Known about the structure:
A: 190 residues
Amino acid sequence: MQKITEVRWHGRGGQGTVTAAKIFAETAMSGGNHVQAFPEYGPERMGAPLRAYNRVSATPLSLHCQVTNPKIVVVVDNTLFGTVDVTEGTPEDAIYVINTPDDPKTVREKNRITNGSVYTVDATRISLETLGRPIPNTPMLGALAKVTDVISKENLIADTKTNLSKKLSEDVVQKNLEAINRAYEEVKSE
Amino acid sequence: MGKIVAMTGNIAVANAMRQINPDVCAAYPITPSTEVMQQFSNFVADGKVDTELVTVESEHSAMSACIGSSAAGGRVMTATSANGLALMWEMLYIASGNRLPIAMMVINRALSAPINIHGDHSDEMGARDAGWIQMYSENGQEAYDNLIQAILIGESEGVLLPVMVGMDGFIISHSIENLSMLDDQQVKDFLGEYKPLHPLLNVNKPLTMGPLDLQDYYSEHKRQQTEAMELVKPAILKVAKDFAALSGRTYGFFETHRLDDAEMGIIALGSAAGTARHVVDGLREKGIKVGMLKLRVFRPFPSEELQQALGHLKSLAVMDRSESFGAAGGPVFSEVRSALYDLPTRPKTINYIYGLGGRDLGIANIEQVVADLQEINQTGKIKNLITHLTVRE
C-alpha cells in the first residue's frame, strides 16, 4: 500500500495558513516527494476559521478526495479550540503541532486531546519578536521541520526564501527565516 | 529539458497558455477559472507573450471575440467556467459551425441554481452537442498537457474544430501538485506556426463566413461537421504520439488501469478517476478483480475502442459528475451503455451520479460501488440501475 502522509492545518483567514501549506508542499517536493496542497474553500474572510491540507508521498499521488484522517494536525490559532474539533478523524499516532504559549501537557488537558503526541511552540510571540506582526505561519513550519520527518530545515529555509522573495523585501524574508530557526529550536515536546 | 514545479491547476493552465503564446485571448472572469486569465494577463503585461488580450463585458462577447479573431486567421484561446460557458452557448455553435479551431479551457463547475462555485461536469456536459471536441483532465499535469495538444488537434487537416479542455474546479484548479513543465522552446517547436486555411484577412482571396444557408445546403454543412469529427480520432492519436516523444507522457482516448484481467470496472472522468485508481490498487491487494477506465476524450466519443476495452467485464459502474434530468442516466452512462449495446455479450452496467456541486467522493464511496458490482456478479441481478451516490435521501 502506498505510504501517504496527510496534514490538516487549522487557522484563521489572514494568518498565512494557506501560504504555509503551500510552502510545506514545495519543501516536501524539494525533498524528492510527490505533494498536494489545497485549502478548504468557503467564504473567505479575515479571522474566519479555515482549513488547509497536504498530502506527501514518495510515489505519485492520485487521491483527489478530502483529507479525513490526517496524521499531522497543525493548529495555527489556539483560539480555535472550542470552536473547531482539531482531533476529528485523527489516528492513534497523530502528531499535533500547536501555536500556544502553554506547554504540551497543559494544552492536552485543557482541550481533552487523548491521542498521539502534542508539541507546542509560541509562534505568535516569535513572529511578533522577529517580524513585528502576528503572522505565525513561518514559525509553525520551523516547528514542523523539527517534529516530523516530512520536511528538512535546510529545504524549508531555501524554499521559504524562494517563495517569499516573490512578494516581500529581502529584510522581511530574512526575518521570516529567523522566525523559522527560532521555532525550530523552541518547539516543546511532552 | 523541462523542470518539476509545484503549482495549482489554474497556474499550470496559465503557463500552458504562456508557452502556446496565442495571437488573441478574449476573457471575462468567473470563479474558479478567473485565476487562469488573471495570471495570463500578468504574462501579457510583463511582455512574456505576444498575445492581444481582449477584455470584454461578458462570456458571450468573449466567445464572439474569439470567433472574430479565429476567422481573421489567429490562434485563439479563452477560459471560462459554469454559467460563463452557459452564456457562450449561442456562440459555441457558431464557432464549430464556422470550423474555427479555438482552444478553450473550461474549469468545470456546477451550474446555478442554487448558486454553487465548486467542481462538477454540468457545464461541459451541457455543451456536448455543440460540435466541439471535448477532453477532461485528471489533474493539473493532464490539463497542461491536454491544452497544448488541443491546439494541434483542433488545427489538424480536415478537422478545423474548436476544442474545450476540462479540469475540475477547486479540486484541481486550486490544488498544488507536482507538475513536469516543458521548456518554452519545446512547446513552441511542437506547435509550430499556425497557418490558417481560409483567413478572413487574406484580401487576395475574399470570402464570406457564416452566411444564410437554408434548405439548400445547411444539411450538407452539418454532415461535413460530422465528417470533421470523424477525423478527430486519428488526429488525437497522431498528436498524442508526437507529444509522447516530447514529454514521455502517453495519451489516448482513455486510460485503463488493471482492466485487462478485471471482472468489474469503474469508468470516471476528471479528478475522481485518480481516487478510483487508488481504490482499485487497494482492492487488488485483497484479491478483488476490479479495474478502472478514465475517459479523456468525450467528443468524439470513442465507442469502438470502449467496446474493446470493456466487453470482457461482468459488470461495470459508470460514474457521472453531472445529472441529465429526465434522461436514462447521466451523460457518460447513456453513451457508454449505448456503445456496449451491440456487443454479443456485455457487462451489466450501472450508473452513479456523484459529486455534484463539489461534493466529496471518498475512498469508502468508491469501495461501496465495487461492493455493489460484486453483488451483481453474485446474484446476476441489477438492484438499482441509477444510484445517486453521496446524497442524503
